[in-house]
Amino acid sequence: MRLKTRYLVLELAWATGLNKDFINLKIQQNMKNYLMLIFLSLFFFANVNCTKENPHSGIPECVQEKIKQLENEGVRNPPASIWQYDYKGQTVYYVPPYCCDFYGLLYDSNCNLICAPDGGLTGKGDGKCKDFFTESKNGKLIWQDSRK
Predict the structure, then answer these.
(1) Has residue 7 got a pLDDT over 60?
(2) Chain centroid to CA 124
(3) Exposed, middle or buried by CB within 10 Å (0-12, 13-18, 19+), for 13?
(4) Is 8 helix (H, G, I), strand (E, B) or coil?
(5) What is the pTM of this model?
(6) d(CA 17, CA 60)
(7) How far from each other are the two terminal CA atoms of the chain, in whole angstroms?
(8) For residues 40 and 36, what is the distance between their CA atoms, to the nearest angstrom?
(9) Rounded CA separation 16/10 (Å)
(10) Kind and range of the H or E run holding 14
(11) String of b and e for 53-84 (b: at least 16 CB within 10 Å)?
(12) Residue 78: is the preceding peptide bond cis (ω within 30°)?
């Protein structure tokens, strides 16, 4: 179709006495403009929807809330962290103790407190999940406070 249009424009130019080279030049300039417009449009639309990926995607909302709570607290030493494990057929989230006689806390994926596997006065937790450290698998650090 475009070839026919170009042919007709050239025929019209010849019939009216216009220079064919001038018409060819105009057609080439128009094509360059169209190609540039297409390129810029593709570039623009390719970048419009670029968003930063949420570093906590795949983590339950309530655990993300725990992260926000920890970020709003003072800096801990050692730094606060949250670990994900598989334990007794479910995904659980462990927040290690940060000082002295505080408990480490183990939550299910709905942030219900399961137990305290360590910490406390004895360092052995609340005794409700004594096997956590031997039976848990696939431990993965999902967040650690980077503040100093």
Answers:
(1) yes
(2) 37
(3) middle
(4) helix
(5) 0.63
(6) 75
(7) 67
(8) 6
(9) 10
(10) helix 2-16
(11) eeeeeebbeebbebbeebeeeeebeeebbbbb
(12) yes
User: In DSSP terms, which residues pair with 33 in a beta bridge?
Assistant: none
Name 75's Cβ contacts closer than 8 Å, sequence gap at least 6.
Answer: 145, 147, 148
Which token pair is 128? 């409700």
Give yes or no for a contact between 104 and 95, defined as CB atoms under 8 angstroms apart: yes
Record the tokens describing residue 58, joined without a space: 């795949």
AA identity, residue 95? V
**pLDDT tens track for 84-127:** 999 999 999 999 999 889 999 999 999 999 999 999 999 999 99
Residue 17: both structure tokens together: 């006495």
DSSP letters along 21-77, please? HHHHHHHHHHHHHHHHHHHHHHHHHHHHT--PPPTTTTS-HHHHHHHHHHHHSPPPS
Q: How far apart are CA 98 and CA 89, in angstroms?
A: 27
Looking at residue 65, its amino acid is: E
- List, in order, residues 6 or more apart from 31 with CB less than 8 Å away: none
- Position 19, amino acid: N
Q: Tokens representing 131?
A: 């096997």
